[in-house]
Amino acid sequence: MDFDIFPNGSLQQDWKEIDPQYQQIVIDALDRKMDLDIQNSDMSHAIFLIYILIKKAKKKIRIFTGKLWDGFYNDSRISKVFEEAVNKGVNIEIIIESGKIKDIPKCISNKVKLFHMNKKNPLKNHIIISDDESFRIEQPHKDSDLKSRSIKAIVNFNSPDIAKKMGEFFDNHLRGEEIIT
Description:
Layout: H1 11-14, H2 20-31, E1 38-40, H3 43-56, E2 60-65, H4 70-73, H5 76-87, E3 91-96, E4 113-117, E5 127-130, E6 134-138, H6 143-148, E7 153-156, H7 160-174, E8 175-179
Parallel strand pairs: 2-3, 3-4
Antiparallel strand pairs: 1-7, 2-5, 4-8, 5-6, 6-7
């Protein structure tokens, strides 16, 4: 791995809600640059995996999401990793299906480019793409699933062909009008 996901050995301290075996699967996939689909079965997995996708980005993060849900974006680990990414020059773009400017969490306001979704878009799966090599794609879900924290998805840390195609779809079909903050 060419980056430190867990500085100062903070893995157990910062991610104690994540089963150690699950952590090891994720770390092995990263270390070995495996083309492996890893299941994400709940919100804690989602936060853990998205943290890693953002942390490993060197150039660009693209996110398509339903709304800027504060239960996710205001998690201190996510806020911190967004700030670190911006500070190291990572370009971050977020497309939202719905929401208003007042809903933008502090951790990302004025730091990322926000866009409305292109209304002609048929995609129901929320995605995150890291440097056109890694991705996470959610199964479609309702807002009530956020409250129950039962979000299902897969992540792959080394699938550049699929990630690049997802990035092209993001750029050419998902992006609508920019939101000026």
